[in-house]
Amino acid sequence: MAFDTLKTPYGERQKILGGAATYFSLSASYFADVRVVAVVGGDFTAENEAVMNNRGIDTRGIEHAKGKTFHWSGEYGENVNEAKTLNTELNVFENFEPHIPAEYADSDFLFLANIDPILQTRVRDAMQSVKLVGGDTMNYWISGHAQNLEKMLQRVDVLLINDTEAKMLAGDNSLPRAARKVLQRGPRALVIKHGEYGATIFFRDGEFTGGHHPFRAPALPLDEVRDPTGAGDSFAGGFMGYIASQGEVNRRVLKHAMFYGSVMGSFSVERFGTERLQSLTRNEIDERFEVFRELTHLD
Amino acid sequence: MAFDTLKTPYGERQKILGGAATYFSLSASYFADVRVVAVVGGDFTAENEAVMNNRGIDTRGIEHAKGKTFHWSGEYGENVNEAKTLNTELNVFENFEPHIPAEYADSDFLFLANIDPILQTRVRDAMQSVKLVGGDTMNYWISGHAQNLEKMLQRVDVLLINDTEAKMLAGDNSLPRAARKVLQRGPRALVIKHGEYGATIFFRDGEFTGGHHPFRAPALPLDEVRDPTGAGDSFAGGFMGYIASQGEVNRRVLKHAMFYGSVMGSFSVERFGTERLQSLTRNEIDERFEVFRELTHLD
């Protein structure tokens, strides 16, 4: 969890509630019960935590440490796909050691947000009963912590990364070829996020029943992307949340999850920070799901 | 029509048959009768023309001028979306004045490939009986021939351009906003091609019946793009050819045409030059259409 100070062509905000765990949890909360593990500092207020509790999110896994909450500052230009980081203050995040509350032990689904792959692997190993593990990573870990990341890849079922990360991770500029290479290293499915062009899921041969081909969900052509921060984590929240809401995990469910992920990403970027994700209704989500269907489906 | 000398990560070719009219015509020939208007030089052989005639294309509109055929040289790096032009010899194309054979006068559909917008407008005005006009353009005309291009925009029904061209034409970095601005200047629909991410069609309000939303067709995630040359023109050929094969032009037909355009683009780039487009069967096209459907459609 984090505070974000950011500037986009539509305005700027100081230290608003952000962070992968926040976006993910709020997004997933429209589909399933969510339990969050994170660390915050003394500047994290009861009001901040109430944002999560108001959505029914179990926050017993939030550690309140001495010091300040992680603080990211950045700005977006006209190309909203590229954030320019101005400053990163790790603060309490620097020595974060995730601690899983005993009450979380029976969780069926686990999402490992972007963090040191050593910690991701440790958390995953501590959650023996989970049925499906999703995970994220980023360039920093791909280029500088390859061996640790390799172990993490063997412990996730679905990896969610973007185009640049996929190409870097595989060392291949062809996305489908990169996908196949990554799938050989552990994950049973790979979601590659293309920003405003949507996202594609690639399946490892023989994993998850139903169909052989990859599947692509569109992104909504939005006139105004006010704040792209958290779009990927909101996608992951919709994706994992929808999966968790279903009885079993097969390709049909994963394809629908791709659509719900895109739907949640499209809501997130409409307003600054987590504002839009705090006030949605399931009806709005289902209506937008139909818009996504119209956007791609032939009669 | 042109000769292309090109190099890609998969090999190189000297002076192979190319050009927008060639790719478009071959692609469209799988859906409808095609009549081509173009200029070639003395180096254009009977064998070159036979490639078109073998696909049933009416080549009476090909003018054989004194001099050499247009010759483009270029190369593609690992990023196949970007061609690096090494040399362009306009040759007979420099003073090309399209002449429409009398036998072509009853054509129902017209596609204006990328050329001086003055010539595009002139050809369009000469074809009074057409039901639907498609058109292409490029950065060179957008930045340097704006007034002439504006007149051409008022005379096309569907404009097909890529992301960069759309943003430049509208002076807007948001694709949906750029689309709306372009649609206010003439075309009833705008197809924006996203390369490996597919293409989106935007409709002007009230134009073509059936549905309000834009529509996105995917591109096929291909392991090996051997030669991206002509992908856009092959898309346009499949798009216009499919439309021409249908009884009427509505949004349903245009959406299917988006898929057929993507299908033909995906075939084109599998081999060098027009090789793949010369030897397809309608059955292969329909099979790939189903792959595209699986790639995007939920059960």
Throw out a few tags for this protein:
homodimer, 299 residues, alpha/beta, UDP-N-acetylmuramoyl-L-alanine:D-glutamate ligase, 6-stranded mixed β-sheet, 4-stranded mixed β-sheet, 11 helices, globular
Report what the structure shows.
2 copies of one chain form a homodimer. The first copy, chain A, has 299 residues and is α/β, with parallel strands linked by helices. The first copy, chain A, has a single domain (21-39, 47-61, 100-296), classed as UDP-N-acetylmuramoyl-L-alanine:D-glutamate ligase (3-Layer(aba) Sandwich), CATH 3.40.1190.20. The first copy, chain A, is 36% helix and 23% strand. Chain A is built from 11 helices and 12 strands. The first copy, chain A, has helices at 20-28, 46-53, 117-126, 139-144, 146-153, 163-170, 175-183, 231-244, 251-268, 275-278, 282-296, and strands at 2-8, 11-18, 35-40, 58-64, 71-76, 83-89, 109-112, 132-136, 158-162, 189-193, 199-203, 215-217. In chain A, the strands form 3 sheets. In chain A, strands 7-8-9-10-11-12 form a 6-stranded mixed beta sheet, sandwiched between helices. In chain A, strands 2-1-5-6 form a 4-stranded mixed beta sheet. The first copy, chain A, has a two-stranded parallel ribbon with strand order 3-4. In chain A, helix 1 packs parallel to helix 8. The termini of chain A are far apart. The mean pLDDT of chain A is 95.
